[in-house]
Structures are given as C-alpha cells and as structure tokens.
Amino acid sequence: MEFLETIFYFILVLGVLVFVHEFGHFIVAKRSGIRVEQFSLGFPPKAFGITVGETEYCISWLPIGGYVKVAGMSDFGSADVRQAPWEFQSKPRGIQMAVFVAGPVMNFLLGFLLIFGLRFALGDYVLQTTKVGRIEATSPFYAAGLRTDDRILAVSGTPVADWGGLIDAYSAGDGGDVVLEVARGDEVVSLVATPDPGQALDFDPFLPSTAGSVMPGYPAARGGMEPGDRVLAIEGESVSGWDEMRKKISARPGLETEIRWLRGRDEMAARIVPQPQQGGGRTIGVIGIGPSYEPSARVPVTITTAIERSGRDLVGYTTLIFTLIKRIIMGEVSGGMIAGPVGIAQMAGSKAREGWEALLDFMAMLSINLAVLNLLPIPALDGGHLMILSVEAISRRSLSARQKERIQQVGFVFLLGLMVYVTFGDIGRIWGLFY
Predict the structure, then answer these.
(1) What local confidence, expressed as pLDDT, does residue 75 receive?
(2) H/E/C letters for each residue in 275-288?
(3) Alpha-carbon distance 100 to 384, whole Å?
C-alpha cells in the first residue's frame, strides 16, 4: 500500500510541475502566433490524446517529463520547415528565447506562490527560543564572550522572546556596536560585539537532537529511525543538541556506529554506518536526517511580509542549488547528493505521509530546482536552446540543422548518462549498496 501511495504522489507532484512548465512554453508560443502541434504530459509512447483545433493534447506512458511540439522546430533539426508565418523559425530570436524562458519562469512562479500561500494562510514558523546552539570561534560575538547554551534576553535594549524577534532586533541596528543581554546559568551578563557593517547574524539557535525528517534510503532510515525520534547517544556518548550530534556523526564516515534514540517512551538502538560524503574539503559521515525546528509556533504575517519573506526564500533556494552544483563540480561534495526519479518518488511519498503542508513545501522546492536545472546551458534543455540562440545572435548567423542536431544528440546522451547515474545512486541507497 505504501508503494502505491508513493507512486501516486510522485506522479501527482511531477505531473503538476511538468504541466506548469510546459504550459509556460505553450501559452507564450500561442500568444506569439506560433502553432502548437502537440502538448504532452509524459514522454512517448503516447497513451491517449484528443485534438482541439490545431493542437493534440495527450498523455504519454513515461511520467518523468513532458513536451510541447511547435511547428517548424525539432530537437534534432529534422522538422519540416516551410517558412510559414506561424512556424517557430519564422519568429525573431527574442520571441524564440521567450518561448524557452517561459517554462522555467512558470516553475519559479509556482514555487513562489506555494511558499507564499503556505506562509500567508498558515502564518510563519518562528523558533520559540533564543538559546545559542552553534557559534564559531572567529565570530565577533564569540570574541565578545557569547558561548553555546547562552540565552539572549535583549539586543541593543530591545527585549527578544524568540529567534525571529532576535534577528529583527539585530537587523534594526545602525551597524555599530551590538549590546547583548545574556542569561548564563543563574546570572545575567552584558556583552558588547562589533560586527562588520551589514554582517549577517553568524551564530545559530540551539536545536534538539531530534530527527525532523529522515531521508528514504539513507543509513538512518535503514536503521529504523523515524521523524520525531530524539537521539540520546552516539557510541555511548550522550548528546542533547543537534550540532553536538552532527559533529560526532560527521567524524565517523564508513564506521559502524551505535546510535541510541528515544521514540515516545521507548528507547531504541541500532548499529548504523554513516555514509561517507565530501564536505568542506574533507570526508564526513552522514546518516540522512534533518533537524527538527522545535519548539516553534505559527505566527500570522501581513501580506507584505509574506511576499517579502517568500521572495527571500525563492532567492535562497535558487542560490542553494547553484552552490550545490558548484561544490559537486569542484569535488567538494559527492554527486550522490543528487536525487533521481526513484529518490524524488520516495521523498514525495514521505512528505505526503507528513501532511499536505510538507508535501506542498517539497513541491515548491522541487519546482524551483526544475527551473534552475532547465536553465543550465546543457543541450536538450531550455538553457541549451537559449545558449544556441545567443551564439546565433552574437555571430549573426544561424547554425545549420545538422549542427543543431549533433549538439542536441550530445545533450541527450549526457542527460541519459546522468539519469542512469542518479538512478543507480537511488537504488544503491535503497538496497544499502553504499554503506
């Protein structure tokens, strides 16, 4: 039953994202006077379809993508081009580029709207603590005397009761000295830090050693851990905070490790092997769990605040994807971090079991991922088409159909190889082939 549920939510999530993406291409092409011959959800072979006007709308058997076929254009350069005014090749390059850009733009828009809708309808999550969890020795706040487990009471005279209020009070400063009123044990101390102008808050809140999420196929899931489990000890050494636990697990890549956790009132244990992964120029161990941002509460926000913070999240998600791609290229992290169709299906099913809020948040993140990946200058993707059009615009001459065909073939071979690689990684995690 769980398998069928996972397949259902995978098709639902991917179907929505692909439909929105292809609808972007479709609507801009139609509005530009380009004839759309086919709109398909899924890749061939075709399951069934219906023709309305000049366009055949169809569902195809492979539910891992979709396409819009427009008159006078083919990925392999073999379309019958007659120079008719409704053909793609008859339109100016600006319009051609707009057709390709429209798909990723629609995915960015969907991601933003999902984030905004959740935030405005349900309120913003605010971490109900001001306790410091992680602070680097290079931080100006560390130099001022701030330490792990300190509880911040006020920032430059402004009382703070939660982490959101702490960030707001810090951001409202004039860029000079920052005075922190801190509770440490039974005493209250005052600390003065001098961060650089515009410097972001460089210490993190204390988070409990509770698994907020468990990645399917990773060591923790194979060891029996579930969301909500609170880790008690690593190799017999007790832990209470997330950062403390993370450091102990990171230090044991590929080594069998006893992890004890609490589920409700039941104490459980398993021998788990942290999966080696490149991070920060060294090999670290990961078991595939995410933090639990507790205690937290929903706080209503205005529409202006919801728009501003959702836009910030959109930029943050986008930047994070580019950072991950850069780190993979530089060899700083393993390419195994990329999830393929199997991994995405597992995550969709897992998020659905957590509730609609988690599923919609996952869909927003995945939609932004899809937008960014499609804009990469890889032949056969929207970014590859945009690159070709840009080269033609700069050189002021069009590539031949044969040249375009060869470029697209290289792109398809690369994407096929990438698909095999990430799928192998997904299956390897499920079956425990990689530790």
Answers:
(1) 54
(2) EEEEECCEEEEECC
(3) 10
Distance CA 143, CA 231 (A): 31
Q: Is 190 helix (H, G, I), strand (E, B) or coil?
A: strand
pLDDT in tens, 257-284: 999 999 999 999 999 999 888 766 788 9
User: Tokens representing 51?
Assistant: 């023709």
319 dihedral zone (left: phi>0; alpha: psi -120 to 50; beta):
alpha
Task: Give per-residue pLDDT as tens, 194-207.
Answer: 988 878 888 999 99
Q: Give, for 41, the enclosing helix (H) or strand (E).
A: strand 36-52
Q: Phi and psi dihedrals of 410, rounded to 5?
A: -60, -40
**At which residue do the structure tokens 């840009």 appear?**
390
* Cβ atoms of 249 and 274 closer than 8 Å: yes
CA angle 358, 418, 61 (to 5 degrees): 70
Type of residue at 394:
I
The number of angstroms, rounded, from the C-alpha of 97 to the middle of its chain's C-alpha atoms is 26
Q: Name, in order, each residue with C-beta under 8 angstroms of 349's C-beta and a sequence gap of 6 or more.
A: 2, 5, 6, 7, 9, 10, 216
Q: Are strands 289-291 and 211-214 parallel, antiparallel or unpaired?
A: antiparallel
**Residue 55 bridge partners (DSSP):** 52
The Cβ of residue 124 has, within 10 Å, a number of other Cβ atoms equal to 18
What interhelical angle do 93-122 and 303-329 show, nearest 10?
Answer: 120
Smallest Cα–Cα separation from 201: which of 129, 291, 290, 134?
134
User: Nearest to residue 64, comparing CAs of 425, 325, 383, 423?
Assistant: 423
Q: Given the structure tokens 């994807």, which residue do they identify? A: 321
4-13, 138-147, 194-203: segment of lowest average pLDDT: 194-203
What is the number of helices (H) and of strands (E) in the chain? 11, 18
Q: How many residues does the chain have?
A: 435
Structure tokens at 237: 């050494």
Q: How much is the pTM?
A: 0.79
Its sign, for the CA torsion 128, 129, 130, 134, is: negative
The C-alpha atoms of residue 125 and residue 205 are separated, in whole angstroms, by 14
